[in-house]
Amino acid sequence: MGDSRPLVGVIMGSQSDWPTMAHAVQILEEFGIAHEVQIVSAHRTPDRLVAYAKGAADRGLRAVIAGAGGAAHLPGMVASMTRVPVLGVPVQSAALSGLDSLLSIVQMPGGVPVATFAIGKAGATNAGLFAAALLANDDAALAQKLDAWRSAQSDSVAAIPVREGQ
Ligand code: RP5
Protein backbone atom coordinates (compact mmCIF):
# COMPACT_ATOMS: atom_id res chain seq x y z
CA MET A 1 0.00 0.00 0.00
CA GLY A 2 3.00 2.24 0.17
CA ASP A 3 3.94 5.04 2.54
CA SER A 4 2.29 7.88 0.67
CA ARG A 5 -1.20 9.18 1.14
CA PRO A 6 -3.74 6.95 -0.61
CA LEU A 7 -5.09 8.26 -3.91
CA VAL A 8 -7.53 5.42 -4.47
CA GLY A 9 -9.82 3.86 -1.91
CA VAL A 10 -10.90 0.28 -2.48
CA ILE A 11 -13.90 -0.67 -0.39
CA MET A 12 -16.08 -3.75 -0.33
CA GLY A 13 -19.26 -4.71 1.43
CA SER A 14 -17.94 -7.90 2.99
CA GLN A 15 -14.86 -10.04 3.46
CA SER A 16 -16.54 -12.40 0.99
CA ASP A 17 -16.00 -9.75 -1.73
CA TRP A 18 -12.22 -9.89 -1.35
CA PRO A 19 -11.49 -12.59 -3.98
CA THR A 20 -13.12 -10.30 -6.55
CA MET A 21 -11.81 -6.98 -5.30
CA ALA A 22 -8.29 -8.39 -5.02
CA HIS A 23 -8.09 -8.01 -8.80
CA ALA A 24 -8.55 -4.24 -8.52
CA VAL A 25 -5.96 -4.08 -5.77
CA GLN A 26 -3.54 -6.15 -7.86
CA ILE A 27 -3.73 -3.59 -10.66
CA LEU A 28 -3.15 -0.67 -8.29
CA GLU A 29 -0.14 -2.48 -6.84
CA GLU A 30 1.21 -3.25 -10.30
CA PHE A 31 1.11 0.45 -11.17
CA GLY A 32 2.45 1.57 -7.79
CA ILE A 33 -0.64 3.63 -7.04
CA ALA A 34 -1.01 4.52 -3.37
CA HIS A 35 -4.25 3.01 -2.11
CA GLU A 36 -6.13 1.78 0.91
CA VAL A 37 -8.44 -1.21 1.31
CA GLN A 38 -11.35 -1.44 3.74
CA ILE A 39 -14.57 -3.30 4.40
CA VAL A 40 -17.45 -0.82 4.43
CA SER A 41 -20.95 -2.23 4.38
CA ALA A 42 -23.94 -0.11 3.44
CA HIS A 43 -26.19 -2.28 5.56
CA ARG A 44 -24.04 -3.71 8.36
CA THR A 45 -21.77 -0.70 9.04
CA PRO A 46 -23.78 2.34 7.95
CA ASP A 47 -21.91 4.75 10.25
CA ARG A 48 -18.58 3.61 8.79
CA LEU A 49 -20.01 4.20 5.33
CA VAL A 50 -21.04 7.77 6.11
CA ALA A 51 -17.68 8.60 7.71
CA TYR A 52 -15.77 7.08 4.80
CA ALA A 53 -17.77 8.79 2.07
CA LYS A 54 -17.91 12.19 3.75
CA GLY A 55 -14.17 12.15 4.43
CA ALA A 56 -13.07 10.85 1.02
CA ALA A 57 -12.44 14.19 -0.70
CA ASP A 58 -10.70 15.84 2.27
CA ARG A 59 -8.42 12.84 2.66
CA GLY A 60 -7.25 13.36 -0.92
CA LEU A 61 -8.82 10.32 -2.55
CA ARG A 62 -9.06 10.76 -6.32
CA ALA A 63 -11.30 7.73 -6.89
CA VAL A 64 -13.18 5.17 -4.85
CA ILE A 65 -13.56 1.64 -6.18
CA ALA A 66 -16.55 0.13 -4.41
CA GLY A 67 -17.50 -3.52 -4.81
CA ALA A 68 -20.62 -5.15 -3.45
CA GLY A 69 -22.93 -8.01 -4.20
CA GLY A 70 -26.65 -8.72 -4.00
CA ALA A 71 -28.49 -5.62 -2.80
CA ALA A 72 -25.37 -3.70 -3.73
CA HIS A 73 -26.09 -0.25 -2.34
CA LEU A 74 -22.52 0.58 -1.32
CA PRO A 75 -21.29 2.38 -4.48
CA GLY A 76 -24.45 4.45 -4.83
CA MET A 77 -24.55 5.47 -1.19
CA VAL A 78 -20.90 6.50 -1.30
CA ALA A 79 -21.56 8.49 -4.48
CA SER A 80 -24.45 10.25 -2.76
CA MET A 81 -22.05 11.70 -0.18
CA THR A 82 -18.92 12.60 -2.13
CA ARG A 83 -17.89 14.25 -5.38
CA VAL A 84 -14.94 11.84 -5.65
CA PRO A 85 -15.58 9.57 -8.68
CA VAL A 86 -17.04 6.23 -7.60
CA LEU A 87 -16.29 3.13 -9.68
CA GLY A 88 -18.79 0.40 -8.89
CA VAL A 89 -17.93 -3.28 -9.17
CA PRO A 90 -20.83 -5.75 -9.09
CA VAL A 91 -19.68 -8.84 -7.20
CA GLN A 92 -21.00 -12.15 -8.51
CA SER A 93 -23.66 -13.29 -6.05
CA ALA A 94 -24.61 -16.90 -5.29
CA ALA A 95 -28.34 -16.41 -5.73
CA LEU A 96 -28.52 -14.46 -9.00
CA SER A 97 -24.97 -14.67 -10.40
CA GLY A 98 -24.39 -10.95 -9.96
CA LEU A 99 -27.24 -9.68 -12.09
CA ASP A 100 -28.78 -8.36 -8.87
CA SER A 101 -25.49 -6.63 -8.00
CA LEU A 102 -25.17 -5.15 -11.50
CA LEU A 103 -28.68 -3.74 -11.58
CA SER A 104 -28.40 -2.40 -8.03
CA ILE A 105 -25.26 -0.48 -8.97
CA VAL A 106 -25.99 0.63 -12.52
CA GLN A 107 -29.51 2.01 -12.12
CA MET A 108 -28.61 5.21 -10.32
CA PRO A 109 -31.00 8.15 -10.46
CA GLY A 110 -29.87 11.07 -12.61
CA GLY A 111 -27.64 13.40 -10.61
CA VAL A 112 -25.73 10.77 -8.62
CA PRO A 113 -23.28 9.06 -10.99
CA VAL A 114 -21.56 5.73 -10.41
CA ALA A 115 -19.33 4.37 -13.18
CA THR A 116 -20.43 0.73 -13.30
CA PHE A 117 -18.15 -2.08 -14.41
CA ALA A 118 -18.67 -5.69 -15.46
CA ILE A 119 -19.66 -8.37 -12.97
CA GLY A 120 -16.80 -10.03 -11.12
CA LYS A 121 -13.09 -10.31 -11.94
CA ALA A 122 -13.18 -8.42 -15.25
CA GLY A 123 -15.04 -5.55 -13.62
CA ALA A 124 -12.62 -5.34 -10.70
CA THR A 125 -9.61 -5.45 -13.02
CA ASN A 126 -11.09 -2.77 -15.24
CA ALA A 127 -12.01 -0.57 -12.29
CA GLY A 128 -8.35 -0.69 -11.25
CA LEU A 129 -7.26 0.17 -14.78
CA PHE A 130 -9.84 2.96 -15.00
CA ALA A 131 -8.59 4.49 -11.76
CA ALA A 132 -5.07 4.32 -13.19
CA ALA A 133 -6.29 6.05 -16.36
CA LEU A 134 -7.95 8.82 -14.34
CA LEU A 135 -4.74 9.45 -12.42
CA ALA A 136 -2.65 9.22 -15.60
CA ASN A 137 -4.37 12.35 -16.91
CA ASP A 138 -2.01 14.43 -14.79
CA ASP A 139 0.82 11.99 -14.08
CA ALA A 140 3.13 11.51 -17.08
CA ALA A 141 5.07 8.61 -15.52
CA LEU A 142 1.88 6.73 -14.79
CA ALA A 143 0.59 7.46 -18.31
CA GLN A 144 3.75 5.90 -19.72
CA LYS A 145 3.32 2.80 -17.55
CA LEU A 146 -0.29 2.46 -18.65
CA ASP A 147 0.66 2.75 -22.33
CA ALA A 148 3.35 0.10 -21.82
CA TRP A 149 0.88 -2.19 -20.03
CA ARG A 150 -1.58 -1.87 -22.90
CA SER A 151 1.10 -2.56 -25.51
CA ALA A 152 2.24 -5.64 -23.60
CA GLN A 153 -1.34 -6.84 -23.49
CA SER A 154 -1.67 -6.44 -27.26
CA ASP A 155 1.66 -8.19 -27.82
CA SER A 156 0.52 -11.14 -25.70
CA VAL A 157 -2.37 -11.96 -28.02
CA ALA A 158 -1.41 -14.52 -30.66
CA ALA A 159 -2.50 -13.75 -34.23
CA ILE A 160 -3.27 -17.37 -35.00
CA PRO A 161 -5.26 -19.55 -32.59
CA VAL A 162 -3.88 -22.83 -31.30
CA ARG A 163 -6.16 -25.56 -32.64
CA GLU A 164 -6.92 -27.20 -29.32
CA GLY A 165 -8.76 -30.52 -29.25
CA GLN A 166 -7.99 -31.45 -32.87
C1 RP5 B 1 -23.07 -7.49 0.31
O1 RP5 B 1 -23.66 -8.70 0.57
C2 RP5 B 1 -21.61 -7.77 0.19
O2 RP5 B 1 -21.03 -6.86 -0.70
C3 RP5 B 1 -21.53 -9.18 -0.30
O3 RP5 B 1 -21.25 -9.26 -1.68
C4 RP5 B 1 -22.90 -9.73 -0.01
C5 RP5 B 1 -22.88 -10.93 0.87
O4 RP5 B 1 -22.19 -10.62 2.04
P1 RP5 B 1 -21.83 -11.75 3.11
O5 RP5 B 1 -23.12 -12.32 3.59
O6 RP5 B 1 -20.99 -12.78 2.37
O7 RP5 B 1 -21.05 -11.05 4.18
O8 RP5 B 1 -23.29 -6.57 1.33
Automatic annotation (TrEMBL):
One of its GO terms (molecular function) is phosphoribosylaminoimidazole carboxylase activity. Keywords: Isomerase, Lyase, Purine biosynthesis. Substrate binds at S14, D17, R44. Residues 6-157 form the PurE domain. SUPFAM superfamilies: N5-CAIR mutase (phosphoribosylaminoimidazole carboxylase, PurE). Pathway: Purine metabolism; IMP biosynthesis via de novo pathway; 5-amino-1-(5-phospho-D-ribosyl)imidazole-4-carboxylate from 5-amino-1-(5-phospho-D-ribosyl)imidazole (N5-CAIR route): step 2/2. Belongs to the AIR carboxylase family. Class I subfamily. This is N5-carboxyaminoimidazole ribonucleotide mutase.
